[in-house]
Amino acid sequence: MSRPHVLTLSCVDRPGIVAAVATLLARHGANIMEAQQFDDTETGDFFMRVAFDFVGEDRFEPLREAFAALAVEYGMDFSLNAPRRRKRILVLVSRFDHCLADLLYRWRIGELRGDLAGIVSNHAPETFRHLDFSDVPFHHFPLDEGKPRQEARIRALVEESQADLVVLARYMQILSDDLARFLAGRCINIHHSFLPGFKGARPYHQAHARGVKLIGATAHFVSEDLDEGPIIEQDVERISHFDSPQDLVRKGRDIERRVLAREVSYFLEDRVLLNGLKTVVFKN
Length: 284
What we know:
The model has no long low-confidence stretch (mean pLDDT 94). This protein has 2 domains: 5-81, 2-Layer Sandwich (Alpha-Beta Plaits), CATH 3.30.70.260; 87-281, Rossmann fold, CATH 3.40.50. 32% of the residues lie in helices and 30% in strands. Helix 1 (17-27) packs antiparallel against helix 2, helix 3 crosses helix 7 and helix 6 (203-210) packs across helix 7 (245-268). It has helices at residues 17-27, 60-74, 98-108, 147-161, 177-182, 203-210, 245-268; strands at residues 5-12, 30-40, 45-54, 77-81, 87-93, 114-121, 138-140, 165-168, 187-192, 214-221, 231-238, 272-275, 278-281. A 7-stranded mixed sheet has the order 7-6-5-8-9-10-11, with helices on both faces. Strands 2-3-1-4 form a 4-stranded antiparallel sheet, with helices on one face. The two termini are 15 Å apart. The chain contains 7 helices and 13 strands.
């Protein structure tokens, strides 16, 4: 099945938005395949995602120009993406590689609709000798050169690779405020949902010692406030007194993998819109 064109927008809610968008699409020969909208009654803002294709001639550029004028009229922030433009992904990883391995697999089978621009790690390539990086550029940026220089290399690579999305796939380094600001809105992270209850080392062992009954994972945008960025996706799994600390670690890894994969897919398919400290996620 071919991928559709995707329009996303947000603006202050007012009558006539949906009609204006649908009319403009129809005038340019677009056939709407999927449409979702959300009215935030607390803020008065409106959010919309429309997937469409053209009947006959592809009129993407004329549509983009016409929609820019409509956006001015309604005060819209909007994004209009064609299927030929695949988003580029840069993955940052440390020693724990379960999320990276899962993303690589999903990318290779075509489940992730983007291009993997590269992998960056503060650990040497030998750490990942069991993974196949033959078709993906790997960059070793060690921290012994100093964090400012290491982050400068990351920033330069983001620009050079034209990465649309930076994924912290269990990258166990805190980004500086400068780098977090530079990546605002295009950097996502995954962590166990024990935060802030179980901070520091061995969180699953801490959870086992406290007899928790649920474990989970949270995927969110990266912000200057550590692990406080807008949440995109979460999941949980029930556990019991029969589970050992090792069982919690194993189950936790599995939750982290699937939550991060969903988060990446939502971003690549233009399903995530920022809404202040929260997100609107139009799931399929």
